[in-house]
Design a protein that fits this description.
Strand order of the largest sheet: 2-3-1-4
Shape: globular
Strand content: 25-35%
Helix content: 40-55%
Structural class: alpha+beta
Number of helices: 3
Number of strands: 4
Length: 99
């Protein structure tokens, strides 16, 4: 299993929720899902200048499946429609294989 910890600066919760709802069925077809999801009130330490107010763990059956998901045309359409309008910054905190 391949997992990533991701930090976001969400600027529109409603549109971001629409993104999550639209992308979830696509994510599941690629063997993916979410393990954790947090709204963050305060970031005490960060290695990036980008602000973070949301942190989540997203997983896939493999790194290859993750790459296929993020490059799939259906996901790209959803990303353009919702994600780009609701998220100001994305920080990949970590990516790793999980046993």
């Amino acid at each position: 299993m391949y997992e990533m910890m991701v930090g976001l600066k969400v600027i529109n919760d409603e549109v971001y929720q629409n993104y999550r709802e639209a992308m979830k069925p696509i994510l599941e077809t690629f063997g993916g899902g979410f393990r954790y999801d947090f709204k963050i009130a305060e970031t005490l330490k960060s290695e990036t200048d980008d602000p973070i107010n949301r942190v989540f763990a997203i997983y896939f059956s493999s790194e290859e499946m993750m790459e296929k998901f993020f490059s799939h045309e259906d996901y790209i359409k959803v990303k353009k429609q919702y994600f780009e309008k609701s998220v100001a910054a994305t920080t990949i905190i970590a990516g790793y294989s999980r046993t």
